[in-house]
């Protein structure tokens, strides 16, 4: 379980989010919603450890501290012109598990292949990432998450620019990962669609307040 205590996320000394208190149970799904600019991505980056909290703290119960955190950023935060292929980007999901000097083994290659198949990108695996469409790019990032097999997964608008069929594939994979015990936090603009596939709690952020809405289903 992650405990969030009096957390204010922001940049340098500029506070962005309101004060947030709550906890995220292992194996649960939390959606983060709110209007543009309210601090959803900033909150996610703070959970990922990419930004230090401006105040308050985040704490994992010791036994549950995840070794690997999976993070799917928004496309605008990624350099799409870096000369790498789709396979290379998805293979980065293996990096936390392999020695820097070692090559990817057959088991890991199979994992990458399975992830690319799941998101329907097998035919584009040797393409340079700068030539992908927005939706293909998002599918590639999701495949990397699948390969990572992290216990704590943070997804920043994973459904952005994705067609309905692919949304269903993503949401059912997210569901499966949570059933295997992964804890998942997802920033969404519209969580109505997701509610058809997932059972989740919601953190609603406003300029002045944060409201933690518990799921009606008692899942944990
Ligand atoms: N690197 C940064 N440095 C300073 N301020 C930033 C930085 N990134 C974002 N901000 C500001 O922080 C605020 C919250 O941004 P954030 O991206 O977290 O909002 P959001 O709720 O995810 O918005 P959206 O729904 O538009 O994606 C905005 O006012 C934004 O301009």
TrEMBL record:
It comes from the Bacteria. Belongs to the ABC transporter superfamily. This is ABC transporter (Putative manganese transport system). Residues 2-217 form the ABC transporter domain. The keyword ATP-binding applies. Keywords: ATP-binding, Nucleotide-binding, Transport. PANTHER family: IRON TRANSPORT SYSTEM ATP-BINDING PROTEIN HI_0361-RELATED, METAL TRANSPORT SYSTEM ATP-BINDING PROTEIN TM_0124-RELATED. One of its GO terms (molecular function) is ATP binding.
